[in-house]
Amino acid sequence: MFTLRDVYRARQRISKYIRPTPLVYSKRISKELDADVYFKLENTNPTNSFKVRGGVYFISVMRDRLRGVVTASMGNHAQSMAYAGSVFGVDVAVVMPSWVSRIKKEAVEEMGAKVITYGSYYDEAATYARHYAEENGLSYVDAINEEKLYPGVATMHLEVVEELPDLEVFINPLGGGSGAIGAVTVYKTVNRAVRVYAVQAEGAPAFYLSMKRGELSSTDGVKTAAEGLAVAKAYETPFNFLRNRIDDVLLVSDEEMEKAVVRIFQSVRQVAELAGAASTAAAYRYAHLVKGRKVVLNVTGGNIDHTKFAEILSKH
Fold first, then answer.
1. What CA–CA distance (Å, rounded) separates 83 from 55?
2. Phi, psi of 264 (to 5 degrees)
3. Considering the entire predicted model, what is its pTM?
4. How far apart are CA 197 and CA 200, in angstroms?
5. At how many degrees (to 10) do helices 150-163 and 4-14 cross?
6. Residues contacting 16, CB < 8 A, separation 6+
7. How far apart are CA 156 and CA 22, in angstroms?
8. Which residue, of 150, 193, 206, 245, has the greatest Cβ tally within 10 A?
9. How does DSSP classify residue 219?
10. Helices (H), 44-177
């Protein structure tokens, strides 16, 4: 697996294309949680998600060996690969589950990638994407197990630790696990005392169950509207890397994520999708973990349909 040195190398490679994202203090949330709370605004990246870091790094490293790539995604990894493909001139096809929002599919197509709709959740789409790549002589990029994505993704954590070296708690949503892998690599290398928590949806708790059982687990589908967290099983590479390194995996409901979307907008005027608000939802549900500490909540993405966003704001 990669090291902190690899993260620095990744930053050198992607810095021409990806600028550092803001780390913003919230006086309002800090008062409510009795902690010093900062938001890492990964929703301000070129594709409005942290995933773009991994896509740009992967294709920049691999482009000379790629005739074209196929991947599967609920949305943000898809945009990451599409964006990187447009930058480096690599053809990209993305298989997306049927229920993924139209706004995410259109964003992928606008960047020149081909969108194929298949399956009801990520794992079904990924199986089809693998077969499609084999049949067409293309390279399949596993959104979860592809280790060459990790150093690029981890650069967001490098920015945090350099700006806030006395950080005590970092909370990161977990769908596949690349963001959490980057978090423990950076923070635990710099200071082992930093507490790193991952967050899953109650309706997609495969990784949570795997950690509790000590073995890879899966669920019978998913029951969450948080697209970035809608994964029905835990995967070997993230599980093996995180099982002895992550401090805990937390669960939140869709309703708690909706309330967190509103809290983020009210406090720092930022738009978050449900998965992007999962860290904030967890900070409220597990307030005892952050009380009195210096905390960073990762707003991992802001790709939410405007009608859904308006509905959430009016509902809560």
1. 8
2. -65, -45
3. 0.94
4. 10
5. 100
6. none
7. 10
8. 150
9. -
10. 51-62, 76-88, 102-110, 122-136, 150-163
Distance in angstroms (rounded) separating the CA atoms of residues 97 and 10: 30
Question: In whole angstroms, what is the distance from residue 67 CA to residue 63 CA?
Answer: 8
Tokens 């589950």 identify what position?
97
Crossing angle of helices 76-88 and 51-62, rounded to 10°: 40
Token pair listed for 109: 């197509």
Q: Give how far Cα 227 sits from Cα of 28, 223, 233, Å.
A: 28, 10, 14
* pLDDT, tens digit (0-9, with 9 covering 90-100), for 70-125: 999 988 899 999 999 999 999 999 999 998 878 789 989 999 999 999 998 888 99
Tell me which amino acid residue 300 is.
T
Q: How many CB atoms are located within 10 Å of the residue 234 CB?
A: 27
The residue type of 25 is: Y
Q: Token pair of 125, please?
A: 């789409």
CATH architecture designation of domain 4-50+148-315: 3-Layer(aba) Sandwich (3.40)
CATH class of 51-144: alpha beta
Close Cβ partners of 264 (under 8 Å, ≥ 6 residues apart):
39, 270, 271, 272, 277, 280, 299
pLDDT tens track for 227-273 = 899 899 999 999 999 999 999 999 999 999 999 999 999 999 999 99
Domain with CATH 3.40.50.1100 in the chain: 4-50+148-315, 51-144
